[in-house]
Amino acid sequence: MSAETQTPTEPAAVAPRRLAIDLRQYGILAALVAIIVLFEVLTGGRLLMPGNVNNLIQQNSYVLILAIGMVMVIIAGHIDLSVGSVVAMVGAVAALAMSEWHLPWWLAVLVALFAGALVGAWQGFWVAYVQIPAFIVTLAGMLLFRGLTLVFLHGGTIGGLPNEFVAIGAGWLPNWLGTVGRTDVLTMVLGLAACVLLVVFQVSARNARKKLALPVEGLIQLWGKAIVASAAILAVCWQLANYSGTPIILIILAALILSYNFILNRSVFGRHVYAIGGNFFAAVMSGVKTKRVNFALFVNIGMLAALAGVVSTSRAGSAVASAGQNYELDAIAAVFIGGAAVQGGVGTVTGAMIGGLVMGVLNMGLSILSVDAAWQMAIKGLVLLLAVAFDLVNKRRGGR
Predict the structure, then answer these.
(1) pLDDT tens digits, one per residue of 162-185
(2) Statement: residue 99 has pLDDT above 80
(3) d(Cα 360, Cα 369) in Å, to the nearest integer?
(4) What pLDDT is stored for residue 398 in this prediction?
(5) What is the crossing angle of helices 105-124 and 290-316, to 10°?
(6) How far apart are CA 310 and CA 109, in angstroms?
(7) CA–centroid distance for 374 within its chain
(8) What is the 3-state secondary structure (H, E, C) of the chain?
(9) Could you tell me which residues are beta bridge partners of residue 184?
(10) Which of 29, 70, 76, 265 yields a CA-CA distance of 20 to 30 A from 151?
(11) How far apart are CA 288 and CA 323, in angstroms?
(12) What confidence score (pLDDT) does residue 24 get?
């Protein structure tokens, strides 16, 4: 009786696993769409008028810039309460550099960014190396830098800033390609280019995950996202093209969003940030230089707060001691509404941008409806509370 020999068979090709849909992120996006539709109806179509779309971008640019830095800090398990005061102080430094030190506007901007980096290094030293909780360090910074703002401005205002500087926050790209009727051609070309880049990035990211045998999105989900996002981009560009064209600050924001998405998702530094927030002890045991990463995070948010200060001062056309009031609360709210976890380890730049737009649309819609400022604050507080509660409930359900 002879035993049958078994011939090895070729392993069957393993189909790539489907990537689970991030219901939290899509829920925030759906909430943003619902809020836009609601206010568009309540305001009789005034919310999405070209001028209001332009103002939505320019008026909320500082929140979006701050939210980019804040989401990284919160992912790592920290918080920064000082950014509003840093915005005011750096705005004062930039105005002084141009009005009293007689520096050219571009050099004043570099001086402002350097000042922000110094502020971040100061706070990062206490957090990373002395290991004082970030809440305490930045709370002290909020008082310190607000006081320095009053010292620099002597309680007054510095105006008469150069037109080139003012254009950073309140100007538009020249219509180099001309217009068709009232429509700025350059704005539409930039919109089409953004749509093409969006599709290329999504497809390349999917292919990269597929090669590594990681879960990937289904093609229907991939192209559905691309089509919806492209339609939204073109709709915004159409409104801007029929107003004054592309705001300069929109180009700055686009560059920041692309850069920081890459840093968080594709770089070693980004992985270390998530590791520190997800499990600090495991990150230390894995060899992550936690002190260096934390120090770099605060230098980074200091520079972004400085940039927000430049944008805020340029849009206002002057430096005032009261600038930056509650900016830190708007940025933190944007991050948490955008899906960041209170405990750290979770969050995205895209989610923070969506959260910032939710806050911006709420502000603009309520203002158009002439809702009292006190009620506007109450509504925004309620939205923040509900967003964080929704996040915690989802995590508890996932744990069970």
Answers:
(1) 999 999 999 999 988 888 888 999
(2) yes
(3) 14
(4) 58
(5) 140
(6) 7
(7) 26
(8) CCCCCCCCCCCCCCCCCECCCCHHHHHHHHHHHHHHHHHHHHCCCCCCCHHHHHHHHHHCHHHHHHHHHHHHHHHCCCCCCCHHHHHHHHHHHHHHHHHCCCCCHHHHHHHHHHHHHHHHHHHHHHHHHCCCCHHHHHHHHHHHHHHHHHHHHCCCEECCCCHHHHHHHHCECCCCCCEECCEEHHHHHHHHHHHHHHHHHHHHHHHHHHHCCCCECCHHHHHHHHHHHHHHHHHHHHHHHCCCCCEHHHHHHHHHHHHHHHHHHHCHHHHHHHHHHHCHHHHHHCCCCHHHHHHHHHHHHHHHHHHHHHHHHHHHCCEECCCCCCHHHHHHHHHHHCCCCCCCCCCCHHHHHHHHHHHHHHHHHHHHCCCCHHHHHHHHHHHHHHHHHHHHHHHHHHHC
(9) 179
(10) 70
(11) 38
(12) 60
Token digits for 358? Answer: 């939710």
- Position 5 pLDDT exceeds 50: no
**135-149 pLDDT, tens per residue?**
999 999 999 999 999
Contact 333, 355 (CB under 8 A): yes
N- to C-terminal Cα distance for the chain? 55
Q: How far apart are CA 198 and CA 269, in angstroms?
A: 24
Tokens 């550099």, located at residue:
97
Tokens standing for residue 297: 């995070």
Helices 61-75 and 83-99, packing angle to 10 deg: 130
Amino acid making up residue 124: G
One-letter amino acid of 178 = G
Two structure tokens written together for 30: 């759906």
